Every structure is written in C-alpha cells, then in structure tokens.
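Chapter summary example.
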Amino acid sequence: MEDFEIGEGKLVDIELTEFGKVMAPVNDKIALIDADTLAWTSALAAQQEHQVMPKEFYSEMEWDAIMTNATYDEESMTYKLIDLELALQYADEKLKRIYELTGCRVCELHFSGGRENFRYLIFPNYKANRKGMAIPDGLGELKLALCQKYTGFIHTKWEADDFVVYRKKYYPDDYLLCAVDKDVLNSIKGKHFNYYESGVFNKDMHFIETSEGTAKVWPYLQCIMGDSSDGIEGVKGLGPKKAALFVNEEMDEEELWEGVLKAYRSKNMDESTAMLNMRLVNMHQLFSADGEIEIALWGPKDV
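The structure predicted for these 303 residues follows.
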C-alpha cells in the first residue's frame, strides 16, 4: 500500500501489484474474455520435450500417439507433451493480473472449438494457411480444465470472437470485454481491456476505447483489407490507408457497402467475393431467438 497525493493535497491509498502496477478499484463487472489466446500461450509455455526411443520400447497405441503428435519432429526425434498443472498455473497467473488491472473479480472464458463453425462451412479454406503451425499438445484438454475451474464455454457453431462481441453488444453494462485481437476490440464500442503482454517487446496489458464510429466502419475496412492470418485475401494491394479511401465513419451502412463494392470493382473483383469476405470478417452475425442463439449471415440491408 502506498500514499499518493492528488488534487488539493489530499492523500489516497492505492494498492500495487507484485509488478508495481496500480491495482484497479474492485467493480462488479464480469471479465468477458476471448480466451483462445490465453489457452494457447499457457499450453505453449507448459510443453515438455521428450526424446523418442526406438519403436520396440512402445506399444502400438503409444507409438501411434507419438507419430501423430502435432509437435513430433522427425529430424530431432522429439515430441512435446503438455504439463497440464503447469499450464493451469500459467493461466491462473494471467487471470490474476487481469483481475488486478481491471478490478473484475469474476470472469467468463470463451473458447473456439474445432473446425465445425459456420466460417469453415461457407469457406473451406478458412485458416488453411495455418496448417503448418503445430498446435500445442493438450490445448483442448486445457480448455476443458479451464471451463471446469472457471465459468467457461467452448463454442463450435461460431467462434469465441463472435460470442464475446454478441455478449458485450446486448449486455454492455454487465461485462468488460477482454481480448488481444484488434478485430474483436474494434468491433464493439466501449472501453475494453487488451490483455496482451510481452516482456520481450516491452508491452503491458492496457485499456483501449473504441468509438461507435470505429465499431461501425471496422468490418467494412476488414472486408477490403482481408485478414492474412485467417486466409481471407480481401482486395489485393489495399491496406489500411488505401481501404480508408473507400469507407469512413461518416457513411451510413448503405454507403459503406457501396464503398466496399467500389474497392472490389477497382481490382475487377465481383460482389459475391465481397459478400463472402464480409461474412467471414463480420462479428455481428449472432442473434437471440426464443431464448436460443442463432446465426444470421450478413447481407446488405436492401437485399
């Protein structure tokens, strides 16, 4: 506990975290966490490397498990397995820092599960460029363990991104949105919390403010720019600055879509491609009907 002087010489007590950061005042908001990155980084940090012994040392089941392990390296003859308790410890420590810096004391963790969600159905090559990326061993197991330890949900019809934006959109006063992906943080207006941190790059967790205008225009910008990490090409050669020449916050929804179409036509691309990409990048496609959450794929209002 330390004393700090504020206006008119008044002293107030503030608490510091173990890393010297100021703790936020406790509040009653729920930390609404897009937790895929939390699980991935925790699982990755808890990988334990093992040397592969000759095949005769293993049963057929054990050998098959090693050969099909996503982390198996034929050249070094090694594979990695998760230390689940260690991974949970890493996740707990991250959540503790989120609590300290946001003032939240409870959370909802949301995870994406598998390749059955609607984006793969409408675009089979969705995230296909990630096939060479080794998934940390035990990632699914860790997600399940976190769901059991905290309030957690694994989504299969849609992604965690979609659900946290939906939840924040319809229950804004109940939640503090926590994510690392700018596509999530820019998709809904309000004060959000970016829980990305890096000692290597000297990055700390921090709050961001997303305006209503930014949230409105963001999916249209994304539709033009595409998203290389998800295999969504967008309009070739149009990055953030050039995309902003076609769409801006002053436009209404009809004008924004027309701006997108102009961008696509400028590179001889058709409306069907633009429509597909908009449905891939847009995080406002969930709605509630009779107490159930459904998907309504995006379409221009005059269609």
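To summarize the output: The first helix runs from residue 36 to 45.
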